Structure formats: structure tokens, C-alpha cells
Amino acid sequence: MAASVRVTYWVAGVRETNGQGLIQIDQQKLQQARQMEQRALAQNDSLALGKAYFMIGEIINQAGSNSTAKEYYLKAFRTLKPIGDSYELGLIYLRLTEGLELTQQSVEDIDYAQKALGVFERIQSPVGIARAHNYLTSAYKRKWLWLRIGSNLLKPFRQVELVLQVELAYMNRRVGREAARSPLESNELFLPINGGYERIDKTKVTYLKAMKAYTGVYVVDRPTPHVISMNLGNLEPFFADPFFYKLSRSVLINLHYLDRVEYKQIVMRYHTGPLALPENNRVDLMKKITLVRTRQPGR
User: Which site from 171, 211, 220, 296 is most exposed, i.e. has the minimal number of CB atoms within 10 Å?
Assistant: First the structure.
């Protein structure tokens, strides 16, 4: 039974004030949660106690008191975390994303949601997995707007590519902050590789090649490329260094590894097989490299 409670009220021993006058709190559910809490304390049952704390937090949160609810979510977290994964633990991570004072540099919301997703995947909860993905989608959209990478997206864009771009952007902002430089100027960045993120030294990237909706990233001493689920146009801003040159619409090369230039093709160090050199780019490429010009025999 729901009851109206005036401005100042007591919930589970915590005094809380709501400046909006009347709030609604389900007294019956609160009483059940308090009874569950008392039984768990009497039986020294940590799992039941953690669930009771979480239930109280949910009831208070629904009543509109986020600050007091968070206290109970944290109590539930400290109780349940040592026990192991549970549905309630995953929900606590999601609840902790709510009410965060987020800034452009904040990553706590994504970190919490990813931890929740990990819990739900390990306990194989389809409902929990869906909820975590919803939280992540909202967080990614927020990052996308803040990081202002939307102008680099091709429209219409694939949802998975949006997620990868946002993750790539905020992961590399971390690298940039560590180096006290812009992430676009840093020689290191994280690329989404094999389901995770791998640190890549850009000075060891020989060239990038478009593969339809994907991009192959070729690096020193690796015969096959890293295949990134993102098109070249969206990766290119992270390789804006002077030593990278846009050879064609589908190829971006590192001039440090350019070994041979012929009339219609070039050869890159560490990789067999030539790359096509568009005729209209040949003159411009020649301006980028140091040439020793000699007079042709017989002239």
C-alpha cells in the first residue's frame, strides 16, 4: 500500500528531506524489505542481507530520494561483491551510473555499465544483458555528442560502428591525457582488435587499406593486417600525423616505410606486393619525398 509522506521522513534509520513536499513510498514493500534485512542479520546471511539492502534502495529510489537510495546501493554492493556475481550485483552497477555528475572526460558511466554487462553475461541473464546494453547505448550517445565525432560519421551509419567510434575516441582521450597531449597527436592509440582494445604505436603502422566497411591496419613485422570494423574515413583522423599520406581514397601510407615509387605503383617496406599509385596523385607524392634527380642517359 502506497502512502504519502511529508517533507521529512525516516527510511530504514536514515533521515531524508525531499523539497517537493509530498513523496510516495510503498510502506508494505519497505516493511517486507526491513523484515528481510532483520532475518539476514540474525542468520548472518550475507547474500540475503545484500539483496535486502538493494530492495530498500530500489524502494527509496522509486520514492524520488536518489541520494539515500545510493547509500543503500553502496551497502548492497559492499555486501554482495565479495560473494560473487548475481543479478542484484549487476543492477547495482547500473544504478550507480544514475545521478553521476558527468563531464566530457567522464567514463564512470560506461565503466559501470560494462561491469554490469560482464556480470549479466557470466550469470547468463538475457534480461540483464539487454538492460546493460540499453545503458551502454545511452552512454555512447552522450559521449558521441560530447566528443563531437558525429561530423566524421558517414550517414547512414552502422550502429556497431558508432559504438566503436565512441569507444575509440574516449579510450584514446585517456592516452592523450596521460601524455598531456591531444589523443590525435599522440603516437599511441588503442584500436578495437579481437574483442578488446590493443595499444598500437602509430610510428610502426606502415599503411591502412580500406576493405569495404572495414579497414586493414598493417604494422611492422606482421604479415597480415589487423582488421578493424570501421571504415577508413572514420579512422583517418587518428592518423593525421605529417608522415601519413593519403595515397588514394582507399589507402593511407606511412611515408617512413615507402621503399620504392614506380610510375603506377609503390612498394612498402615489410610487405610484399605493390600498391596502386593513382596517376593524379603521383606528382603530389613526389613533392612529399626527397628525390635525387639526375639527367637521363642520352639527354
Answer: 296
Task: Read off the amino acid at residue 266.
Answer: I
Calpha distance 286→221 (Å, rounded): 27
CA distance 26 to 8: 16
> Could you report the per-residue pLDDT of 85-138, keeping only the tens digit for each?
989 899 888 888 776 655 555 567 778 888 899 999 999 988 888 888 888 877
The C-alpha R_g of the chain, in whole angstroms, comes to 28
Mind listing the domains of the chain with CATH numbers? 185-294 (2.40.50.1020)
Burial annotation 13-28 (CB, 10 A radius, 16+ → b, else e) = eeebebeeeebebbee
| Model pLDDT, residue 166 | 58
HSE, side-chain direction, 13 A CA sphere, residue 100: 20
> What single DSSP character describes residue 43?
H
Q: Report the distance separating Cα 29 and Cα 134, nearest Å.
A: 27
In the numeric block, which cell numbers belong to residue 272?
610484399
User: Which pLDDT value is given to residue 267?
Assistant: 94
Cα separation, 252 vs 239, whole angstroms: 9
Phi, psi of 192 (to 5 degrees): -75, 105
Q: Which residues of the chain have pLDDT under 70?
A: 1-24, 99-107, 141-186, 291-299
221 by Cβ neighbours in 10 Å (0-12 / 13-18 / 19+) ranks as: exposed
**pTM of the prediction?**
0.43
- C-alpha triplet 152, 162, 253: angle, nearest 5°: 50
C-alpha cell read off for 222 = 606482421
